[in-house]
User: Fold these one by one.
Assistant:
Number 1:
Amino acid sequence: MSVSGATALSQLTEIVGEANIVRDPRQLTRYDIDSKTPSAAVRPAAEAEVAEIVKFAGREKLACVVSGAQTKLGIGMPPRRYDLALDLSRLDRIIAYDPEDLTLSAEAGTPLSKIASVLAEHDQFIPLTVPFMARATIGGTIVSGVDSPLRHSYGTARDFVLGMNFVTGDGIAAKSGGRVVKNVSGYDIHKMLIGSLGTLGAITRINFRTFPLPRQTRTFVAEFRGSREACEFRNAIVGSVLRPRTLEIVSESARGQLLPAEKARAAFGDNRWSVYVAFAGDEDVLKRNYKELEAARHSEDRVSEWLRELNPVDEQSVMSIVSEFPAAILKRFPAAAILKISALGAELPDLASYTASIEMPWAVVMRGLGVAYLALWPPDGSEGSLHVLKQHCRRIFALAGKPPFRHVTLPWCPSALKRDIDIWGPLPASFELMKKLKNVFDPGGILSPGRFMGGI
């Protein structure tokens, strides 16, 4: 049965109302995934409506893709089928917030910016400064698994998501975890949904642990004439008593939009690399951190003429560019491929050195913990440039599993590359277990079919 049929539309209308069904082909293009467009989109306003829609889709064998602000639809392989877009942007309420207990519960379609605003009134926050921050919803952020520079000190979403409500592929409303930090209500099933790209269930509500906003933050930048020196400085920081809030290594090509420093560029040339390190605390703590940072800079024979504190405006600009790196690259170069590479911290010098062999425009931002985002983009739109881009991506995937390319994925890339490259990389040893979980949570295979690794 087609979702565009009269009977199907009538049943969907009964659930959400005519005003919340999108059928206009021009409006449906916002839900495109790799040139595939659904025949309809539906916008529920409550978990019960989500469950009814998924039950209906299961009965009619309609493939559904869940989204909110559509900022992460480019992540993943093209869906095998795409009949219905399940738009959760109307589920945008903050259900509960207890500042004293440091907990917040919000519906999946709630914008990150709205949550940040509410928390800021009580000097609190959630450490999710992620790409597309101005438009992204909390559900899309969690289900896509994108990370934040703040993972250096706060961990990933797995460390502060306390629980979830979600709807399984057979339309059952379920929950896992709870709304308080101390919770022993069973298995942390909700953690499996983080980064699952909507293949296990439609998240409707998420419970978070919140954190106090730091009294003060300061960010420092050190300049180096090569990647190895920058990485050695990172090693010195990690091996010291310093506990940075964020620690990022940025290539000159990536920092072009940041803080122009013509004097440094003249001294170090195009191979200039920057290390940005941020601290939080009171005035005494921040002064002590700066002294320790100076000691780390001079602990070995590395070339660094510049170590300076950023003013508040530049500090905010740096944080924004580092966290928005994929979004900024894609805005400027829509045909870019952005690889996410995981390495051990000590292997970052080798990863940075690899970039010297790339014979096309590139930029890289490396988290101090060992996660790197490497962007490659063709100089023009020719078939030859796209072929070179594809070859570079293939070479990196061929190294997957070996240091420093311990884990490689390709979250963002042109659709043409996905025809020849599996953007999830080699299958993990746990893949058979993952397939069994998919069959349990989505027995009909209607949720984002084919988008996750191994065609799940």
Note: Residues 383-398 form the longest helix (16 residues).
Number 2:
Amino acid sequence: MNRTAIAAALAAALLLPAAAKADDAPGVFKIPGTESTIKFYGYVQLDGTVDFAGRPSTIEDFDWATVLPSIPSDESDDGKKHPQTYLTARTSRFGIQTSTPSAAGNIGVRLEGDFNGPSYYQSETYTNSVLFRLRHAYGTVGNFLVGQTWTTFLDLGAAPDTVDFNGPGSLALVRNPMIRYALPLAEGMNLALALENNRGQQYGPDDRTQMIPDVHANFTMNGGWGHLSLRGVAQTYTRQVPDGADVKNKSKVGFGAAASGSVKFGGDTLVAQVAGGPGIGRYMLNLVGNEFGNAGGGITSKTHGFVTVNGEDIELWTAYAYHLGYTHVWGGGARSNIVWSQTFIQDPKINDVAQGNSTQKEMMQAFVNTFFPLAKNAEVGVEYAFGQWKSFGPNDIKGVQHRVNASFHYNFF
């Protein structure tokens, strides 16, 4: 290495600590020769599960964390396989954030990914290889955001603290490409309005056609006592149906609404949420894996919260869910959580025919956990997770989850 390169390297090394001192956030430093700051962040995490009841056979290929509707029924072959263990480092992640001042306001950029994508033929077969996936990729100018991030329908402040990577199925665990504007109101209040990517035909009939983005609104109020969030989403479901020698579009609008928040009790916190509506679909995790049966010769669709009847009519599935979570902080930085959640799906009666055992009607979940700090930047979590779903009659078919979760979490700094 020549002297010029050595001098440049030494100058950069001297600049980074000085820049970090100028910024309160750890890991943030000014990029030499610019007005921009940059932050690197992320962590390494090992997750482990032990299932004492059945678990999905696709745990390696798709979602290994809890998606309650995918738990096999007690009578199935997969439901009788237990106990089973699984270890993975798939949730390890890395992210970059930058901030640049401008006349229009600070310009922020965030790019983040992890390795929790569907593994297909990777995983144990190929030395536990996993696939990288995009989580966040967006830019902001003041209160204006364009890119991919958590849906406006999700209130992370009311999400319970679980070792399980997904948590209760009442949450809208969706990251969407979007255009969003946060309108400041009174102190501690804002209204976010967004147009977000809709769900295309990749998980529906081939004759689906989606033209209109999902429309979102989120009012949030924050204070020393906690926070409150009121949200709504409208989705347009459209199908192409025969009309003589031509085709026409048949549409119906689905709605979802949610209210959530948190209340602080000294060092403890209570979080709660209730959400639901006709056609709420993918904005409720417990609907993602629910397989809707075929009836009366109609074409049905999974994972959308709606059913098509006789190839034309669109009938919206109505679902409601809630969760409660309480966090208690112990001495030494340890904390414990208890979480309870339920989901209810109303029988849509396709062609006035009630649904049978192929469709789930209600779900319940409970999580009890404790997190222990190992060091300044590391902690371990241990949890018991219970879940149960029941189907519509006439037989009392159900699936049960008894799972122990553990995580070993190491931040970069």
Note: Residues 3-21 form the longest helix (19 residues).
